[in-house]
Write a structure and sequence with these properties.
164 residues; mainly alpha
Length: 164
């Protein structure tokens, strides 16, 4: 979304990015917390500087940085461009999160689904995984669209208050 905002200055792209950031932050927190609670009984520790955990923590910091930068100014337009640039830089971290288990062999097992040797997960676990993946994608889309509508209505209300 941020590239559309930076290149074409499309205001809806900025609203979409602004709507996605808190949701992504929440999903990152859920991932880090549930991963730590799962890791404690399995690995015996709450946190290890594992490649996947560390890259996910960095992704969380990019989300928080985007939120802080986009809300740092009185006028939302002033923070939109620097926040979009930070978001594009943060996108570099996405393949690192995905491939970290293959690049650095630490506590996490290697990839099970998208890998060169084909899928390495039993179908009894694969279908529930795909079902939950689709469900989370739909949940994400519904929340983003609802949030975008809220931001659009807030801006419309602000412009009406300024005019009248």
């Amino acid at each position: 979304m941020c590239i559309f905002f930076l290149i074409w200055r499309h205001p809806l792209a900025e609203i979409a990015a602004r709507s996605i950031a808190p949701i992504g932050t929440g999903f990152a927190v859920i991932t880090l917390v549930t991963g730590s609670s799962w890791g404690k009984p399995i690995w015996g520790v709450w946190w290890v500087w594992d490649g996947r955990l560390t890259s996910m923590l960095i992704l969380f910091f990019f989300f928080v940085g985007y939120l802080a930068l986009s809300n740092a100014f009185d006028q939302t337009e002033r923070g939109a461009r620097p926040a979009a640039i930070l978001a594009l830089i943060g996108c570099i971290n996405l393949p690192i999160v995905k491939f970290s288990v293959d690049w650095w062999h630490t506590l996490h097992q290697p990839a099970s689904i998208i890998r060169s040797g084909g899928i390495a997960i039993d179908s009894s676990m694969l279908w529930p995984l795909f079902t939950l993946f689709v469900a989370f994608q739909l949940l994400f889309i519904v929340i983003v669209l609802t949030r975008m509508l809220t931001v659009l209505n807030e801006r419309k209300l602000q412009s009406q208050m300024i005019r009248g």
